[in-house]
Specification:
Helix 2 runs parallel beside helix 4 and helix 3 packs antiparallel against helix 4. The protein folds into three domains: 111 residues, no CATH class; 59 residues; 137 residues. Strands 3-4-2-1-5-6 form a six-stranded mixed beta sheet, sandwiched between helices. The chain is α/β, with parallel strands linked by helices. It is elongated.
Length: 359
């Protein structure tokens, strides 16, 4: 079946439409937000019996329905029961309610429906939830870069002739250093022109993190899923075997950085702690500090001898990092407030593949 045939198949099991498949899907699900749980479930079932766009719109409807009904257990049970009848969800897991793994997977597809329906992406997709979900995971691995995702998908299709879940999962795995890797340009803020980014690029040998108070709170929270932070902050997969990290935080946030953020980024221990400004009080809890960590280095990194001689203003962490690691070839700034020339900058929420959930 050709790419066009798969995506523009007739609206089987759906209400008649006046135009093509894309418009048909839009018309079919346009009023789902005002319908009952049973009606939405039946729409979803009919969508899974049609083409790729219908499956994506069905997942969007699932995501919206879960958000709408999540505080009403009886309505949730009705919605899930209908999806079980339509063989969308497994009957053996119905008792799990909103925690059904497949329901979470379909909801994630729906949450990223706008990306999957983009020109340059949807043309390659197939109507299989497992494959669509792998595309979503690849998108997150690419730090939510739509252009890089489109190029990766086109490459896989050109190479394999068809998009499959296994092929996408293989592409999403970090590449070994001795493996030739295709270069994809990226629109990530502040990325040096012509340098690769995403799963198809080089690993970073210099990391700077400037987390905000809200980022610190997220890192400090206790999550029901112990792997939640690792899944939502996928920086460690892109850090080189030999790398240096600098983190700018208040002294009181040191435990969170040392025991949570740095391990998540692939660094096992703290090497140095430097006060970013001269303290004026014995209590240094709220004094800004720069935490230094290393991996793969035989000898500890030395700090500049004149570091304490230039204290009229607080130490600029990017300047300090570049000075201590002048030979770094691939530099990443996470939790950035703005882009910085010469750095791959992930500004604000771009750092998170997705927001971690406390559930």
């Amino acid at each position: 079946m050709t790419r066009a045939n798969r995506n523009d198949s007739s609206c089987a099991m759906a209400a008649p439409c006046s135009s093509g498949s894309a418009q048909c899907a839009v018309e079919l699900f346009s009023n789902s937000e005002n319908q009952s749980a049973e009606q939405i479930a039946r729409l979803v079932i009919s969508g899974f019996g049609a083409g790729t766009k219908h499956v994506i719109y069905a997942c969007i409807a699932i995501n919206k329905a879960v958000l709408r009904f999540r505080n009403n257990r009886d309505t949730v049970d009705i919605f899930i029961a209908e999806l079980v009848k339509g063989f969308i969800l497994p009957a053996s897991q119905a008792h799990l309610g909103l925690s059904i793994p497949k329901l979470s997977m379909l909801g994630s597809i729906g949450d990223h429906g706008d990306v999957l329906l983009r020109d340059g992406i949807r043309e390659y997709l197939v109507p299989y939830p497992s494959t669509l979900y792998e595309v979503v995971l690849l998108y997150k691995r690419l730090f939510r870069n739509v252009d890089a995702l489109a190029k990766c998908i086109a490459l896989i299709h050109e190479r394999d002739g068809e998009l499959t879940a296994d092929a996408i999962a293989r592409e999403a795995k970090p590449k070994k250093h001795n493996t030739p890797q295709p270069t994809f340009s990226s629109t990530i803020t502040g990325q040096p022109e012509g340098q690769p980014f995403g799963v198809c690029g080089n690993d970073f040998d210099l990391l700077v993190a400037t987390p905000s108070l809200s980022d610190i709170r997220r890192l400090s929270d206790v999550y029901a899923n112990s792997a939640a932070l690792a899944e939502c902050l996928q920086i460690h997969e892109r850090i080189a075997a030999k790398a240096i990290a600098f983190v700018a935080v208040s002294v009181k946030d040191f435990p969170t950085i040392a025991h949570v953020l740095l391990p998540l980024c692939g660094f096992g221990r703290v090497s140095r702690i430097v006060l970013a400004s001269t303290p004026t009080h014995p209590d240094v809890s709220d004094v800004d500090a720069i935490i230094l960590a290393e991996r793969g280095h035989d000898n500890p990194v030395l700090l500049p001898g004149d570091l304490w001689q230039q204290r009229a203003a607080p130490v600029d962490i990017l300047t300090l990092a570049a000075r201590i690691a002048p030979n770094a070839s691939n530099k990443l700034h996470i939790f950035a407030v703005e882009s910085s020339p010469g750095w791959h900058s992930l500004v604000g929420e771009q750092t998170w593949a997705e927001r971690p959930s406390l559930r």
